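fyi for ur records
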Amino acid sequence: MKKLERSFYERETLDIARELLGKYIVNDTPDGRTIGKIVEVEAYVGSKDAACHAYNDKCTSRTKVMFGQGGHAYVYLIYGIYYCMNVVTNKENYPEAVLIRAIEPIEGLDLMKRRRGTDKILNLCSGPGKLCAAMGISKAQNGIDLCGANLYLLSGEFISPKCIASTPRININYAKEARNYPWRFIIKDNLFVSKGK
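which gave:
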């Protein structure tokens, strides 16, 4: 498998979101390596998307990484407890990203279980906070180049378009009409997707 290159990330966000399904995310840490297959994502498409952190071109210390080069990690804290990891997409000054919502564990399961404090495989990475905890992804990796050496994506497995379903995104009721955009993509019938809509 090949590491994804910059050119993969500097394209249209909705195309990337679908194509991220089946890709492998790798995190090499001093504790060990963990790998997961991406099975669920949500796209956030810039300044005109009311669900996007950069809606109306809002550039803050938190969101500035979204305004940079595609192929970097946007990691933030929610509810004061959980980290979420996004893949920054498109070109500079187009603040767009894809949230990785769930992965299927591939390698490093014992380490993932210890980090999460659970032996339940199907619940291990079935949500954005869960997968970050299991893989050891934290705010320290916010802005990291995904074309680098420690946190990166591999070409993984090809997922046929007929095996992909789209739904509205989850937990964004604040986002007016944008809450209904069908920009959550999952691998159909995969047991590791989150228990949302």
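The CA atoms of residues 38 and 99 lie 11 Å apart. thats all i got for now
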